[in-house]
Every structure is written in structure tokens, then in C-alpha cells.
């Protein structure tokens, strides 16, 4: 490449091409074709933040997701083009502590144009929603700090979007922030955030009702992404690996989790769409359980029209089956 195409120029070219072809489709990268040239360029660190920005921004914003579809976003690395997008965006929506590369790029290039969703409400401790008890007087088994060495005393759990009520509150704040950047449309943003809040409240009610009466409440999951969900709906999370999915569990940890799964009569070991199911399958085989997908929605796994709300509802059905809820 001997020239550099700015994202804005690229979006304009794409829009022109789509207009020529008479296409009115949306793309996740450039927003609606032929959209308002005044629309606000927003960069989101990963899918749930993209979902939020698109729902609240509507056609007033063009949202770029830094994470590739189908790729696990924790360990995202940024290419120079993406760093450029961060530098040029009107607003960067990110979650400090979730994607170190994004944290760094924001700090260097977008300090005053960034919205850190981790600051909206205090984050839960890494051990929240965990599973910790004394099995009939035997010595307490430490399944709380999945990796004691990585989970220092003040470690926080970043997976905040899996509590729909928290996501709604983040949405309200995002609307306020967008309104500050684009005062003419502040009312629209507020309205859309309120509409999304209603949908998320409905989802919250479905979870509360759907998980009210279950035969089991322990969930064995591949990485500890479900602390917020567990805390909100009184489940107990037993994670095979820690807060980051790329850590390999130790043989000792595998043995502990297998023992836990047996002890609590788990019928299902959960795995994720964006990481390998191998370890979950091994434990499932060992204890005679099934495996099923419980999606932490760190990214969408398929381009099948699913969104945050529909994947959450699929998760609810999966949980109801696995935990024998009535
Ligand atoms: Zn995660
Ligand atoms: Zn236990």
C-alpha cells in the first residue's frame, strides 16, 4: 500500500458504492449507507458495547467494533488502522481492564474522547457470584480465586454486561455522553436509552422468573465470565479457568472442578462459542454430564441475526434445562 485510506474516506467510498448499487443495507462498520454525514463516529471495544452504541445512537452514529466477529476479544491486538480509528473517533466506548490493548490505545490517543463503562457503577470483585462453601466440615476448598496468582485482592470482574440491569444503566450514561457530543440529538439518545431500558427490564424479569425454582444452582463454566449473572440471579459459578479464557487450567484445578461437578450433580458442563470446548468435554465425560453452550456474549459467534437480547434468551433456556428449573 502506497497510500493510506482514512476510515472516513473508506466509509464514504463504501456508502457511494452501495448507493450506486441501490443497496440500503446496514453494515456494522459504516452504519446505514448514505446516512447523515453529521453522524457521530463511535468506536466500541467489543460486541456488547457495539450493541449499546448502535441501539442508543441509532442512525445518528456510525459504530466500529474493534473486535473481529467470531474472535475472542479479551486478548485483542490492534493494528495501526484501528489505532487510527481510535484517534479519530468522536467517542471510544471501552471497558477498562477487559482489553489491555484498547486501554493503552485509549490512554495514548483518546483520553478525553473515551467513555469507560467500568466507571458507571462499581465493578464486582473477581470472586463475586463464585462458589465457596464447606463440604460437610471438610476443609474449605478454594475454588474462588481461579488463579490465585492473577487474582490479587482487589481484582475486579469486567463482565458487567451479563447483568441486564447494569447494561441499562450504562446505556443511560452513554446517552448522556452522546448528547454532550451531539446536543441537537440529545433527546433522541435519551429516548432510545429509555426504550432499551424497557427491553432490558423485561429480559431481567424473564431471568428472575425463569430461574426462581431450580433443582440446582451451581453452573460449571469454562471461564469465569458469569459472576454478574450469578450474583443477580442467585446462581453459583464454578469456573474451570479464571477471568481470562486463554489461561490453561492446571491438572489440580481440573480435578477440583470435576469433583465439584460430581458433588453437585451437575448434568451439564458449559462451554463457550469463541473458545475451544475441549476442557469442558473432558470434565463432562469424566462425570457423565452433557455439554452445552452458555454464551458470555463477548462477541457474536454467528452472523445469524442474533443480538444481545436473543443470545441472553437462549442462555436462559439453556440454564433452565441444565438446572431443571420449573
Ligand atoms: Zn471473559
Ligand atoms: Zn462445592
Structural commentary:
The protein has 326 residues and is α/β, with parallel strands linked by helices. The chain has 10 helices and 10 strands. Strands 4-3-5-6 form a 4-stranded parallel sheet, sandwiched between helices. The chain has a two-stranded antiparallel sheet with strand order 1-2. Helix 7 links the parallel strand 7 and strand 8. Helix 2 packs across helix 5, helix 5 packs antiparallel against helix 6 and helix 6 packs parallel to helix 10. It binds zinc ion (ZN) (2 copies). The site of one zinc ion (ZN) has 6 residues, from helix 8. One zinc ion (ZN) binds next to loops.
Concise description?
The protein has 10 helices and 10 strands.
Taken in chain order, the helices and strands follow as: HEEEHEHEHEHHEHEHEHEH
What is the overall silhouette?
A: globular
Q: Mean pLDDT, as a whole number?
A: 86
Distinct compounds present: zinc ion
Portion in helices: 40-55%
Low-pLDDT residue spans: 1-32, 137-152
Task: Provide key terms for this protein.
globular, two-stranded antiparallel sheet, binds zinc ion, four-stranded parallel β-sheet
List the topology elements.
Layout: H1 7-20, E1 26-27, E2 31-32, E3 40-44, H2 47-57, E4 61-65, H3 80-88, E5 91-94, H4 100-109, E6 114-116, H5 164-181, H6 186-210, E7 218-223, H7 227-232, E8 236-241, H8 251-263, E9 268-271, H9 278-287, E10 290-293, H10 308-322
Parallel strand pairs: 3-4, 3-5, 5-6, 7-8, 9-10
Antiparallel strand pairs: 1-2
The structure holds zinc ion (2 copies).
